[in-house]
Each structure stands twice: as C-alpha cells, then as structure tokens.
Amino acid sequence: MKYGETLLRVRYAETDQMGVVYHAAYFNWMEVGRTEYFRQLGMPYSEIEKSELFLPVTKAYCHYKAPARYDDLIRISTTIASLQDVRLAFKYEIFRANSNELLASGETEHAFVNRKGKPVVLKKNNPFLWRRILEATGEKTE
Amino acid sequence: MKYGETLLRVRYAETDQMGVVYHAAYFNWMEVGRTEYFRQLGMPYSEIEKSELFLPVTKAYCHYKAPARYDDLIRISTTIASLQDVRLAFKYEIFRANSNELLASGETEHAFVNRKGKPVVLKKNNPFLWRRILEATGEKTE
Amino acid sequence: MKYGETLLRVRYAETDQMGVVYHAAYFNWMEVGRTEYFRQLGMPYSEIEKSELFLPVTKAYCHYKAPARYDDLIRISTTIASLQDVRLAFKYEIFRANSNELLASGETEHAFVNRKGKPVVLKKNNPFLWRRILEATGEKTE
Amino acid sequence: MKYGETLLRVRYAETDQMGVVYHAAYFNWMEVGRTEYFRQLGMPYSEIEKSELFLPVTKAYCHYKAPARYDDLIRISTTIASLQDVRLAFKYEIFRANSNELLASGETEHAFVNRKGKPVVLKKNNPFLWRRILEATGEKTE
Fold this sequence. Notes:
The structure is a homotetramer.
Chain A: E1 5-9, H1 25-41, H2 45-50, E2 57-64, E3 73-83, E4 87-96, E5 101-111, H3 122-125, H4 127-136
Antiparallel strand pairs in A: 1-3, 2-5, 3-4, 4-5
C-alpha cells in the first residue's frame, strides 16, 4: 500500500436500513485514515496525546458519490491539505478497494490545543511532528 | 419549543477520550433534527420512505465551535437551506440548551431518489411534501 | 412516567440493513436508562464522576424478543437488580411505547472504582448514593 | 493467524470519556469476528443474506475483564458454541494482541430466519452452510 493509505472492511453495524453505509460512518473512517497517517509519519496519534497535544476536529466535510456496502473492502487515501501554526487540515479519498471506485471525498480541519483546550503553536510544542509533516508534504523545513 | 427545534441529551456513548462528544456524533444529531423537522411538517420521514422516496445524504458539513459534554441538554434548530427539483439542503444550529451557547453549525444535502437510487423529481413524486416544504420556507406555491 | 422510566426515539443511525435496530444499540439505550435512573435518584451520573467515582460496565447482557424500528418511541424501564459493597447491577426492560410490546430485556453489572480503576466501597466512598439506592430498592438502611 | 481469528485496531470513536473503549463497542467487534468466521468457513455472511437467510442476534453477552484502549491492536477469537436446527451460538475471546491479555469474553445467539423473520431450519435451507459448520466444529455430518 502507498504512503497515507489504509484498508478496512465495512461492518454490519455501519449499515442502515437503506441497505448501505450510514453517512456518519465515513467520518469514523477518516479518523482511521488519520490514525494510520500519523503512524506512517513516525508519530502515532496516541503518542501525540501522551505529549499533551490534542487535535480536536474543528471542521468536517464529506461529499458522497456512491454507497459503500456491508463487507466491502474500503481503501482510504489520506493526505495533508494544509498546515498552519495552530491548525492542520487533512484530505481523504475513500474507495471501494476492489473496483477502485471513488465512494466519497472529505476533509477535516484540526486545531492544535493543550489538555485545557488552549491553542498551541505546533512548531514550538512539537517540532518533530512539525518537521515530519513538512517533509511529508514536500515543503522545505527552512 | 419553536418550529424546527428538538432537544436531546448527550449520551455517554457519544463521548470520546478527549472528555467531550466525538465529532461524528453531531451528524447523528442533525439526523434527529431532520426527523423531527419532517414530523412537524406533517410528513414523518418513516412515511416518506414507505412511499418509496428516499433522501440519502450527498454532502455533510459541520463546523465545531465549542465542545458538547456528557449529559448536556442539546437543542437542535433545523431549517431548510434550499429546495430544488431533485435535491434538498438542511441547515442546523446545535446549542447547549441551558446556556444557549452555539456549539456547532452544519449543513446536509440530500438527493430525492427511489428504492433503486434513481433520482426523482419531488414535485411529481410527492406533491404534498413539495408544497409543505415550500410553505414552511415561506415561498409561494403559486 | 413512572420512576425509573425514560423515553427515546429510534434514530436512523441505529438501524442496520436488516431494516431494524442493530443489536448493539440496545446497550446504548440501557445507558440512557441508567443515566435517567441516577438523575431521578437525585445524583446524576455526571456528578458521580465529578466526585471521582466511576461505574464501568463489567458484564452486559441482552435478550432480544422483537425488533425495534426507525422512529419507534421506546420506553426503557430501569431497576436496580442488586447492590453489593463494590458492585451494582441494573435490570432493563425495553418496550415499544405505543403498543407496550416488550422488545428486549437486559442487565448490566458495574464495579465501583476510582479514577485509577481501583475498587472502592460505595458505602464509604459515597454514603449518600449508597443510601439513596437502598431507599429506592426498598431496603432498610437501618 | 489461526482459524477463527481476526485483528482490528481500536478507533478513537470507540473510546469514551473514561479513556477506554465504550462497552457496547465490543459487540461490534464480535460482529467483525463472526463476519471473518463465515468468510473463513467459505460462506461470507454477505452471501448468506443474498440467499435470503438472516441470522439476527437473539441474545448477546459480554464479560469485561480489562479495558481496551485507543490504537490497541485487538485479536478476536471466534468459535461456534452450539448449533441447533433453528439457532446458532458463537463464543468470542477478545485479546490485546501484543500482550495476549484477555480483555473480554462474550457470546451471541442467533436465529435462522427468512426475510420476513420466520424461523427456518438451516439443514434444509442451506445444507452447505450446515455441513460446513458441523465440519468446523468437528462433529460428524451423519
């Protein structure tokens, strides 16, 4: 699998009575995509929180194109959309893995905050993560 | 309560380890808002589906402003954002009921489709619902 | 409504592709029943946690008799099944409110623990809650 | 991995404000275990439903021993507990994969029904599945 990609299986719990996946489940999948993105970056999100840095979602968006179904193998492609001093945005594309059909695309924006919810500047708070994100997105770090 | 408003209690199940409500839960609440909106309109969504009309979500968006917490009483204000031949959009404002603090605002867009997922024109498929929505949004039905 | 009772509406999110409510959702409803039980007892669970007492679930059981459906009004009847020094059990009956049909019955067992997960004796840790539960269950507190 | 085993990662969405996985999520995991069990048996559950056979949950039980946490790798071991003409029961053991610590054990019972919810006899309705289950559980098929 390529950088920023992860696979999951649609759960029965994620379907609704329309016979397809309930729309809110896609936001759970984007979270799975982010989790794997941070792991591949060398800084699992569980470690980020242990360092007292939190990334609550400030905006979330999804555009649904075709329905996912129970037991479908889903491929999530996660990339950084933008990085700023106190916020970060991810972009996601969600595919049916076998057919490579694009089912949905989405975006989430996150703030960098401490345990009390106060904004923090990533570059100062966690320079390693800042540098790794810049490297991953191909930007120069100075 | 005013037209288009509904109340709910935050469930423990809806919280996450950040100690606040998980962001995807707000999309479930918007669905609760829509369900009550259709009921107040005189056409419960369960009846809409029995008439073989379905309104799958095609776009969903949420902007988070302040965290909801376990056991908070939540007030959801739901309005129609736009109505077109084959689609409908809702706007939502989500408040902490006691303090009247705005926690989030959101929007969902829905297609009108039949059981097979084919688009249908609401005015022809369900003229009663079409008229009721126009009346609710204050537009003339001619 | 009677003591220990609460109402809720089935959400679309809670249905699955069988066209009925997904079985795990009933455990969320039992949690709603417990939350309202503690509130009626005079000690909301949110207050219990603020006092550094936690009641994690140690066992959970549900027996499903008839399916709940989208938009059904559900009535949950919650009672204390047993109280011991370091644990508490609840019983639940879940009805379709309009028809009074019993849809499911369940039980959950909870430990009394502190923030670190260590067992605590309720009578010492929170004598008010201990007494209120005994009173509610009709036992003498001597 | 051994027969009847499957792995998953704990999602952030599955945690609650106690900082551990919400108890109802384990029932979703048992469903993942069952889904993989049927696939390994040679008859994916999605195929079973396409043949108009459904296995709604009639009883569900879980005993929680230690908390699962965000990003833990979870191993689910699924076995058939019993097979009867019109019902089937599964047993599950849920482990933290790295430490091999048993986090929970559970059981679900399922009825064999048709689309209308009427009980059907598995041996007649789906002799292949009946035989495969008997073989998997090591019983003679006649």
